[in-house]
Structure formats: C-alpha cells, structure tokens
C-alpha cells in the first residue's frame, strides 16, 4: 500500500504481485486478475502463469465464468469442484478442466459500492476455500482495489477510466515484450516474464517501461534468469 503514495507507483506490478501473493499464501495453483474498462467490460491484466492468462482470456471471450459472475454480483463465487459447474458454465468449466484445473474461487475487487474487477484463484484438485483463506484472499483483493483507487486520487488529472485504460495498455505492452523475449532467447513466455520482472527490479526500472523497450527493440541485451 505504501507504494501507492509515491509518484512512480506501478499499477501493473501491484497487480502481478497480488496474483503471486495469492498463490504463495493460499496454496492456489494459479491466479488471474481482471479489471473493467469504462463500459464495464472485463480485461485480463495479470496472471501468475501463461496458461492462466489464456484461460482468463477464454472466459472473457466466451462471456461465461466465475470472474464474470463475481463482477456482476459483487459477491464471491466459489466452486470447489468444477465438475459440478458444467451446467452453470458449460463452455468455461469444460475448458478449465481440459487445462487440468479442478476448482475455482472468484473474489470481487470492490470498495464499498464501486466494482473495479475480480480475482480468480485456480486449483488442480477439488477443494473448498476455507473461511480463513477466503478472508486473506479478499483482504489482498481489497488492498489492490484501494491501491488502484488511491493512485487515481493522487493523480487528479486521471479519471478512473484513464487509470484503468493505462493498466490495460500496460498489459498489452508486457504481453508483446514476453513474446519478443521468448522468441529471441528461445525460452517459454513464463520464463520470459520472470526475466523481465527480475531485470526491472534489479535495475530499479518500471515494469511497463522496460517491457516497452523490449517490445520496440530498443533493448537488445540478453536478460539473465
């Protein structure tokens, strides 16, 4: 949270940290995060793995799944066993199970009545989310929501639409950089993203700006793992 009080606060990095912390603290296999644009359409902005990013994208493209229901209702959506969700989300549930996921829990990014997006937690075995883990996950989601809205307050020239659009644009640049680096160095996209983040942290660079340099070819040096 303290990071949101500095001038160069990086929204993209905050959201990726949220996904990572959920995996580390809650024992989830993977996590994905979606934010809404000014029309209320959800977009994938962070994911702990490439497979998760593609699954979240599949969910949005097919207009079906837990994050969409969570965002629409403003309430958590918990499915301990995706086999039980085949009628509710026939397309999403079948595809998620094909990707070896067996459970999903979606939590709202909401401050009072204002919905910003939703967080998905995936597991490879059927399992409920305990009350304690649910509270931790919602707490992390709340911190991210406050961070996003705090950043808007600090930059009064930004509207919420502009701030969220910035996060979405940052995600596009990051995806381009992952692809460029993966192709250039013969590694998978998850490893490429890990190297980009590591290089940004080691050199005190903003994640989005480093990604832009890689995507546009300005930075050609090899990034170590």
TrEMBL record:
Keywords, A to Z, come to: Kinase, Transcription, Transcription regulation, Transferase
Question: Which superkingdom?
Answer: Bacteria
The ANTAR domain covers 154-215
Region forming the signal peptide: none
- What GO molecular function terms would the record report? kinase activity; RNA binding
Record's protein name: ANTAR domain-containing protein
Organism of origin: Halostreptopolyspora alba
Show the taxonomic lineage. Answer: Bacteria, Bacillati, Actinomycetota, Actinomycetes, Streptosporangiales
């Amino acid at each position: 949270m303290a990071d949101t009080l500095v001038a160069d606060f990086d929204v993209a990095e905050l959201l990726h940290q949220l996904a990572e912390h959920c995996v580390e603290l809650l024992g989830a296999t993977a996590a994905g995060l979606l934010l809404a644009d000014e029309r209320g359409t959800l977009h994938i902005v962070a994911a702990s793995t490439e497979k998760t990013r593609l699954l979240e994208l599949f969910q949005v493209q097919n207009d079906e799944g837990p994050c969409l229901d969570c965002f629409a209702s403003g309430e958590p959506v918990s499915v301990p066993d995706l086999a039980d969700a085949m009628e509710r989300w026939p397309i999403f549930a079948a595809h998620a199970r094909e990707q070896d996921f067996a459970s999903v829990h979606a939590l709202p990014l909401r401050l009072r009545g204002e919905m910003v997006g939703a967080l998905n937690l995936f597991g490879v075995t059927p399992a409920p989310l305990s009350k304690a883990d649910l509270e931790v996950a919602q707490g992390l989601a709340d911190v991210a929501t406050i961070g996003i809205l705090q950043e808007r307050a600090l930059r009064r020239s930004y509207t919420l639409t502009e701030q969220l659009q910035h996060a979405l644009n940052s995600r596009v640049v990051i995806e381009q950089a992952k692809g460029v680096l993966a192709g250039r160095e013969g590694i998978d996209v998850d490893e490429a993203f890990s190297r980009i983040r590591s290089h940004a942290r080691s050199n005190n660079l903003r994640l989005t700006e480093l990604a832009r340099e890689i995507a546009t070819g300005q930075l050609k040096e090899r990034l170590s793992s």
